[in-house]
C-alpha cells in the first residue's frame, strides 16, 4: 500500500512538472519517440532539441506549432492558457524558418576574373549594382554584380591604377594612377570622358567626392597625393578649382565631410581641416607621434551611398536626390556630431569631434 502511494505521488509530480510531447514535421511524420518535456521549455529549448534529434551539424532555426497555432511561449503557459489536457500526447509540429539555406560569408560566392595584373583598388557603385576595380595592368574594369560578369574594360592609364571613386549620385567614376593622372569614365559605355585631370606631381593616395546632400548633381571631388598637396577638382569644368597646401610631407588620405569641410592627414603627423569654398585652413589637429595613414567618418556609409538604399528607388531629378540624401544623412547622424577617427604608425587611433582641437579619446591596443 505504501509502495502504491509512492508510485502515485511520483506520477503526480511528473505530470504536473512535465508534458508528454511528440514532434512531427509538416507532413505528420514523427521525429523520434514521445517524450516528457518540462513546463518551462520554450521555443529556444525545443529548437535545440530538434537540432539534436535531427543530428544537424549546423544549428538551424525552427518555428513550432500546436493545432496550427505558433508556439511562442513556454509549454506550461500554452497549456494553461489554451486549456489543453495533459493526459494526451501534445503534438508539436516543427518547421524550418527559412526554406533556402544562406551560405556563410566565409565562403566565396563568386570569383570575378579578368585583370592581367594585381588588383589594387575596388569600389561599389552607390546603388550597389556595379563594382569598379583598378589594377596594375593599367586598366579600370566595371562589373555587373547581379550576373557577376564583366561590363567594360576602361583603358587610358599608362601606370598602375591606385584609386577609384564613384560620385554619390552614381553618375561619375574617376580613377587615379601612380603618375598622378586622373581619368573620368562613362559608366554606361566604359569610355573615357574628356581630357585627363593633370596637376599632381606624385602618385595619388585617395579620392573623396563632395556629399550629395551638399551639392546635386555631384561635381567636385578632392584628391590627395605624395606631392604634399590636396587638389579640389570640378568635373564639369574639368579643372582644379583650388589647392590645399600646408602639409610638409605626403598627404595619405582625404575625406569630404558631411558638414561641408575637408579633412586631410599626412606623414607630417597632422590632420588638417579645410574650408571648401576658398580652400582656407580652418584648424590643425595634432597629437599623433608618427605618420597618420587613414581617416574614417562616422557618416561615411551614407555619404558614399547618397540617396540610394535597399529599395532600389530611382529619382526623377537631382533636387529630389539631394533632398533624400539630406534626410538620410540627418537620420544616421541623429543629434550626435559627425565624428572622425585617425589611424597612425604610432599604433594608435584618435577619436575626434573636429570643432575641438584635442581628441576625445586615444585608442590603444595595436602592437604594430
What does the model show?
Helices cover about 15% and strands about 40% of the residues. It has about 375 residues and is of the alpha+beta class. It starts with a helix and ends in a 5-residue tail after the last strand. Mean pLDDT is about 90; it is low at about 5-15. This is NLE domain-containing protein. Pfam families: NLE (PF08154), WD40 (PF00400). Keywords: Nucleus, Repeat, WD repeat. One of its GO terms (biological process) is ribosomal large subunit assembly.
Task: Supply database-style keywords.
five-stranded mixed beta sheet, alpha+beta, Methylamine Dehydrogenase, Chain H, four-stranded antiparallel beta sheet, 2 domains, repeat, 368 residues, WD40_repeat_dom_sf, WD40_rpt, nucleus
What is the strand and helix layout of this fold?
Layout: H1 2-17, E1 18-24, E2 30-38, H2 43-53, E3 62-66, E4 69-70, H3 75-81, E5 90-96, E6 119-124, E7 130-135, E8 139-144, E9 149-155, E10 161-166, E11 173-177, E12 182-185, E13 192-197, E14 204-209, E15 220-225, E16 230-234, E17 239-244, E18 251-256, E19 261-266, E20 271-275, E21 281-285, E22 292-297, H4 300-305, H5 318-333, E23 340-344, E24 349-352, E25 361-363
Parallel strand pairs: 1-5
Antiparallel strand pairs: 1-2, 3-4, 3-5, 6-7, 7-8, 8-9, 10-11, 11-12, 12-13, 14-15, 15-16, 16-17, 18-19, 19-20, 20-21, 22-23, 23-24, 24-25
Number of helical segments with 4 or more residues = 5
Total beta strands? 25
- Beta-strand percentage? 35-45%
Strand order of the largest sheet: 2-1-5-3-4
| Oligomeric form | single chain
Order of helices and strands: HEEHEEHEEEEEEEEEEEEEEEEEEHHEEE
What's the CATH H-level superfamily name of the largest domain?
A: YVTN repeat-like/Quinoprotein amine dehydrogenase
Low-confidence stretches: 6-15
Gross CATH architecture of the largest domain: 7 Propeller
Largest sheet: 5 strands, mixed
Q: What number of domains?
A: 2
Quote the average pLDDT.
89
The CATH class assignment of the largest domain is Mainly Beta
CATH topology of the largest domain: Methylamine Dehydrogenase, Chain H
Amino-to-carboxy terminus distance: 78 Å
Rg is 30 Å
Structural class: alpha+beta
Subcellular location: Nucleus, Nucleolus
GO biological process, one term: ribosomal large subunit assembly
Domain NLE: 19-77
InterPro entries: NLE, WD40/YVTN_repeat-like_dom_sf, WD40_PAC1, WD40_repeat_CS, WD40_repeat_dom_sf, WD40_rpt
Amino acid at each position: 500500500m505504501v509502495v502504491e502511494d509512492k508510485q502515485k505521488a511520483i506520477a503526480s509530480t511528473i505530470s504536473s512538472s512535465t508534458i508528454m510531447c511528440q514532434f512531427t514535421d509538416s507532413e505528420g511524420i514523427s521525429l523520434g519517440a514521445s517524450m516528457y518535456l518540462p513546463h518551462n521549455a520554450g521555443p529556444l529549448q525545443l529548437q535545440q532539441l530538434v537540432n539534436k534529434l535531427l543530428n544537424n551539424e549546423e544549428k538551424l532555426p525552427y518555428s513550432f506549432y500546436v493545432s496550427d497555432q505558433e508556439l511562442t511561449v513556454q509549454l506550461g503557459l500554452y497549456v494553461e492558457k489554451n486549456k489543453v489536457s495533459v493526459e494526451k500526447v501534445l503534438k508539436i509540429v516543427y518547421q524550418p524558418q527559412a526554406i533556402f539555406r544562406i551560405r556563410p560569408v566565409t565562403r566565396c560566392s563568386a570569383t570575378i576574373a579578368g585583370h592581367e595584373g594585381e588588383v589594387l583598388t575596388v569600389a561599389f557603385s552607390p546603388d550597389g549594382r556595379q563594382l569598379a576595380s583598378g589594377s596594375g595592368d593599367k586598366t579600370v574594369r566595371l562589373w555587373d554584380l547581379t550576373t557577376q560578369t564583366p561590363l567594360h574594360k576602361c583603358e587610358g592609364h599608362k601606370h598602375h591604377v591606385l584609386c577609384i571613386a564613384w560620385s554619390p549620385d552614381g553618375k561619375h567614376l574617376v580613377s587615379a594612377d601612380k603618375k598622378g593622372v586622373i581619368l573620368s569614365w562613362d559608366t554606361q559605355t566604359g569610355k573615357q570622358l574628356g581630357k585627363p585631370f593633370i596637376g599632381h606631381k606624385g602618385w595619388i593616395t585617395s579620392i573623396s567626392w563632395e556629399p550629395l546632400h551638399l551639392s546635386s548633381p555631384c561635381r567636385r571631388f578632392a584628391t590627395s597625393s605624395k606631392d604634399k598637396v590636396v587638389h579640389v577638382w570640378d568635373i564639369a569644368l574639368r579643372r582644379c578649382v583650388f589647392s590645399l597646401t600646408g602639409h610638409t610631407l605626403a598627404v595619405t588620405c582625404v575625406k569630404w565631410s558631411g558638414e561641408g569641410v575637408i579633412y586631410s592627414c599626412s606623414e607630417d603627423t597632422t590632420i588638417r581641416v579645410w574650408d571648401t569654398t576658398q580652400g582656407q585652413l580652418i584648424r590643425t589637429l595634432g597629437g599623433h607621434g608618427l605618420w597618420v595613414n587613414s581617416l574614417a567618418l562616422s557618416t561615411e556609409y551614407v555619404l558614399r551611398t547618397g540617396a540610394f538604399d535597399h529599395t532600389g528607388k530611382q529619382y526623377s531629378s537631382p533636387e529630389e536626390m539631394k533632398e533624400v540624401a539630406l534626410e538620410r544623412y540627418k537620420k544616421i547622424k541623429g543629434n550626435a556630431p559627425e565624428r572622425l577617427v585617425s589611424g597612425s604608425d604610432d599604433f594608435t587611433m584618435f577619436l575626434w569631434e573636429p570643432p575641438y582641437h584635442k581628441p576625445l579619446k586615444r585608442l590603444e591596443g595595436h602592437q604594430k
